[in-house]
Amino acid sequence: MEAQSCSAQGASEPTSADIRRGVVAKSKRRRWILRSAIAAAVLAPLPSVILYGCDSPTQYNDLCGWLRDPQNCYREFFIDVGARCGTTPDTRVGTFQGRDMLAQCFLNGGGIITFDPAIDFANPPDKRAPCDPDNPPADGGVCNDQPLKFTITNADASECGIVEFRAKYDFTITVNGDPRPPDTLIADLPKDFVLGGTFDMKGGQVTDTLDVTCPIIKDPDPSVVGGAANLIPTGDVFKFDRLQVTRCPELEDILPHAEIDFAPGGVNQTGVVRLNVFYPPPEGDLSGAQPVKINYFECFIPAAPEPCANNLKDGAETDIDCGGPVCTTRCGDGQACVDNSDCASNACIVDMGLKKCNGG
């Protein structure tokens, strides 16, 4: 449903959140008992549900109320998918094949991360900025409205999920669920069944307005004969003002967000790019809670080779990896030179108008 004004929020029609709570909660909340690495950090029972109200005539929903609600859709999404496609507290380590092959990272434990677009050192992922003529990118950033898309592929070649990163508070994450048996109600699924879905938050890249779209959960409609084909979508849409979080600073850490860390590396220095998404803890009081960090990849970029060993003609080299005042390797016959000292033969001659090494 669309974000509602204060006058609209008192309507008697049940929201999709009500449907989700009534149908999903008893099958979803029990799953995280099995995820001890995350649940071990939880100490307190869940507080009561707090409805989202308004205290202004704007069309914004109450961000603090949503964050405080133990059944907000972002938390329930995390309770459902857990660390699928990622890991915590460790990282999913992988490696690119070369500094010029930065479209795919091969995970050490199996799987592939596909980068679209490939990493570009001239437009690094941590310096990307929206194209706004009135506010040009700072700190060497490059104007680029294209999101970074990461496709996560399992070791068996099946797709686990997709993350689109635009900014810290502007991202989309899709986690594919388990194959669902036909005509099966959510409440009848196994305890460890993962529904999956897509959580989307847009706007944080260029504005303080956050448009949140919750995952869509579908169940057969019991009011219709043969209702298995009549699905009820249960995805909510909210419009928040991110600055409202100043009214509830104890909840700011669990505001949905994603972060990319990037270091390009260099000569004899390995680079790295990693993606972390932060979720509210699956159990316990949310006030003052620390988020759970799920790492989806930590991909290392091979170090750049030293000058004179990188298969390029660069610097003061007279030819590829030879000649000039830096390289100790002298150039062979037929390679370019400036003077005799550039050549292994100690003979730099003019041949067909060009200076070349010649061994005689």
Task: Quote the average pLDDT.
Answer: 81
The rough form would be described as: elongated
Helix content: under 10%
- As a whole number of angstroms, the C-alpha radius of gyration is 27 Å
Count structural domains. 2
Give the strand content.
25-35%
Number of β-strand runs: 18
Low-pLDDT parts are 1-56
Number of discrete helical segments: 4
User: Structural class of the helix and strand makeup?
Assistant: mainly beta
**SSE pattern:** HHHHEEEEEEEEEEEEEEEEEE
Please give the largest β-sheet.
12 strands, mixed
End-to-end separation: 83 Å
Biggest sheet: strand arrangement? 13-10-9-8-7-6-3-2-1-16-15-14
Structural features, described:
With 360 residues, this protein is mainly beta. It folds into two domains: 8-301, no CATH class; 307-360, no CATH class. It has helices at residues 16-28, 36-39, 63-68, 73-81; strands at residues 93-98, 101-107, 112-116, 128-129, 142-143, 148-153, 159-167, 170-176, 196-202, 209-213, 218-220, 231-233, 237-241, 257-263, 271-279, 292-301, 348-351, 354-357. A hairpin with a 4-residue loop joins strand 2 and strand 3.
